Amino acid sequence: MSGGGIGVEYSLKNLPKMLPGLILCAVFGWAALQWDSTMSKWNNHFKEAEKVLKAVNEGKAPADYAAYKQKIADGVAKKNEEFKAAEAKYKEAVAAGDKSAKEPKKPSRPITLAEGDFNSVAQAKAIPGKLTFGNLMISFQLTYVAVLLLVGMLIRNTVGIPEFLKAGTIAARPLIKPGIIILGAYYMWSDVLKVGLFGLVLVVAFVMGTQILISLWGKRAKVDTGLAGVMGAGVGVCGVSAAVAVAPVVNAKPRDFFYAIGTILLFGTVGLFTFPYIGQALGMSQPVFGAWVGTAILNTAQLVAAASWYGHESLLTANVINIVRVGFIPLIVLWAIYFYVVKPAVDAGHEGQKINVWEVVRTKFPIFVFGFFIMVTMNEMGFFVEEQRRILAGDLLKLFFAIGFAGVGLNIAFDDLKKAGGSAFVIGVVSATLKAVLAAIAVMAIGGDAFKIKG
To answer: Residue 124: helix, strand or coil by DSSP?
Structure first.
């Protein structure tokens, strides 16, 4: 069964060849998750240290560490009492048939400084350097996603990857898709339908529009049919997957395919490392940013990475937009058949090629989309409680993403990106940039409420 990426096939026969690279990605992913956990902890403690430092400067700080811990314990006890009272009131309202009653949220655990860090703040009036460092890393959004991509790219383009590891690193990339399926446990169908409706509008306007623009522009510029076909599918829909689906239809040569992939990966790589900062500069909320990257970034792996980089809410929205987008792959294939096969035949006076629509949909529709829908349905039916969702998203989802992103980072090779060139490269980049700019304007005009996932 294929699916491991270009030139890699998932099978028991190929497992020994893939295993070393997969182990490398697993270790690399685990190390990045440890970094992420540590930086997040230090960042949270930095914020608590700032509060303590403010109290020290105002002469309101607790007398010692014991008093500090007691103050936090008293605050926790008070919040728990308020929660229990609110919970009892909510249950009474539900029993009385009040459907508008909102279930209270359980208080989160407070941040408590370690004794050494508290003493450093209270006595030296200085925040410990490790906490400052953690805050700095989080402010630059250097989470596990960024570490895997940046460090992986650095390794690939300096010391390189030994040949015996390459197959496994390529096979690791599709493991992002089980993570997308797991995300379904966070959605209700109302979210999917609402955001999906706006996503459908964006997809029709920008994705199909880009595909048609590149097809017409490529024909006018006399770009080779195979190259224009895979370029339009890749830039219009979802990067490599769409290009792979269309390549046989347009009889793309290996050269055409890799030129298109080079263009797609180059734009996606630039977008991955710039869009989060552009989003911040434009003041995009997480749902708006998710809608933007879900429409504008070409490759699923890079899209998920950019959205994860920006925040969890961004990822939830981007995932729905991406689900809608990849669902258009069969339609893109049908467009390619019409524009590059049927229309030229008709124009030349020959009978057009007959199309088996069901066969196209059956063979080209991404299977992982069904898995996502099943998880959404299970969540709608109450299969997942909050603790289970926390385990799925906090542990299992991050594990799949970490291994997948390790594979992505270790396979961003500058030599591959250089393969993009010529007029097709210009057409692809200009079209992708135009789509990104117009999509940013559109999602900001629509606003965050339309794209927010309530779950």
So the answer is: helix
